[in-house]
């Protein structure tokens, strides 16, 4: 039975990676497309390429990510927790995509794993070690801090950028910063691959450890599966969320778009390589765009939509926790 559940985990992890690329990767080029720095087709190809490279390299970081996340019980119990957590994250991600809301796949996944672990404890099974620390340091703190840092950093960096361009003709400024924004979009896509690719690889590594198929190393097929599925999702392109970021929440010019994406890419790199924090690309890019867009002489922010998005960000881990709890209870007979 453990082998069957392991197969289900692999399929759900592949679906999670595909949906991640489908929902989130085009977010990295949304502002560049909005400002005509890239065409939609070129933007998707750019995002797919750098997403693929980042996801492949992320396997090197996945071991550290899995060690700082949670420790699952071995056997069918641990695999069932992964099934419920992944399924709830996928379901919530699809709903948010359909509604055009930029929500975090990472927070959905960690919330789902927490809920499934609680369900295991509720029926007298083994719990998930480290889930309280994981929720604190990888959901609560990033949920609060990373959007604030992205917003504040992008807002403040607009000042030196506009000062440097103060004597330059507006059309020249737009042309130069469109080029910079195209480069920054590729950097964000690469950072997205680094961040979210290691999440998928870490989940598969946890499954391998729970099933007894690994001693802690990352097989080549794990990195390849993560990269291929995320890239495939990117190429299919879910533009609903990109429309929200690029057109609905704020109005942003090439200078501010370049600032927002450059700072977002820097945060993703530091989070993935330096801190091993699973920062949300969606949260970072959205908050960065809002921060840069707010630093203007006139208000261009759709505050009603922003408040709605913030509420859904806060609800994401709670909803997936509850959904995974129910799913894990329903699946508990097969793990016995």
Short description:
The chain is built from 13 helices and no strands.
What features would you describe in this structure?
This protein has 336 residues and is mostly helical. It has one domain. It is 79% helix and 0% strand. Helix 7 (131-164) runs antiparallel to helix 11. It starts with a helix and ends in a 5-residue tail after the last helix. The model has no long low-confidence stretch (mean pLDDT 85).
Notable features of this structure?
336 residues; elongated; single chain; mainly alpha; 13 helices
Helical element count?
13
Sheet with most strands: none
- Give the overall shape: elongated
Total domains:
1
Mean pLDDT: 85
Which regions have little confidence, pLDDT < 50, spanning 5+ residues?
none
Helix-residue proportion: over 70%
H-E string: HHHHHHHHHHHHH
- Rg value: 20 Å
Structural class: mainly alpha
User: How large a portion of the residues is in β-strands, by DSSP E?
Assistant: under 5%
N-to-C CA distance? 9 Å
Number of strands: 0
Topology, element by element:
Layout: H1 2-24, H2 30-34, H3 40-57, H4 59-68, H5 76-99, H6 105-122, H7 131-164, H8 170-211, H9 220-236, H10 239-248, H11 254-275, H12 281-294, H13 303-331
């Amino acid at each position: 039975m453990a082998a069957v559940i392991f197969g289900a985990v692999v399929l759900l992890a592949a679906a999670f990676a595909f949906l991640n690329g489908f929902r989130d990767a085009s977010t990295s080029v949304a502002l560049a497309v909005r400002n005509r720095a890239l065409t939609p087709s070129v933007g998707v190809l750019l995002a797919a390429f750098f997403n693929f490279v980042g996801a492949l390299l992320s396997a090197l970081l996945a071991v550290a990510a899995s060690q700082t996340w949670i420790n699952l019980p071995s056997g069918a119990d641990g695999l069932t927790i992964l099934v419920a957590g992944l399924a709830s994250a996928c379901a919530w991600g699809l709903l948010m995509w359909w509604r055009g809301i930029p929500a975090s796949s990472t927070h959905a996944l960690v919330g789902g794993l927490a809920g499934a672990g609680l369900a295991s404890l509720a029926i007298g099974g083994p719990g998930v070690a480290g889930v309280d620390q994981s929720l604190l340091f990888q959901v609560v703190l990033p949920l609060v801090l990373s959007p604030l840092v992205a917003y504040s950093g992008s807002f403040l960096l607009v000042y030196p950028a506009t000062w440097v361009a103060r004597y330059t003709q507006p059309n020249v400024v737009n042309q130069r910063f469109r080029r910079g924004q195209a480069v920054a979009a590729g950097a964000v896509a690469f950072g997205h691959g680094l961040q979210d690719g290691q999440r998928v690889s870490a989940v598969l590594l946890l499954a391998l450890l729970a099933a007894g198929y690994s001693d802690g190393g990352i097989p080549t097929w794990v990195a390849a599966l993560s990269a291929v599925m995320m890239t495939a999702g990117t190429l299919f392109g879910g533009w609903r969320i990109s429309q929200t970021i690029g057109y609905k929440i704020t109005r942003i010019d090439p200078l501010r778009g370049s600032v927002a994406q450059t700072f977002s890419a820097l945060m993703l790199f530091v989070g993935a390589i330096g801190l091993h924090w699973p920062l949300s690309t969606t949260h970072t890019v959205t908050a960065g765009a809002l921060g840069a867009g707010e630093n203007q002489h006139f208000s261009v922010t759709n505050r009603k939509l922003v408040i709605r998005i913030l509420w859904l960000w806060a609800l994401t881990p709670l909803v997936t926790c509850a959904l995974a709890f129910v799913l894990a209870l329903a699946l508990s007979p097969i793990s016995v």
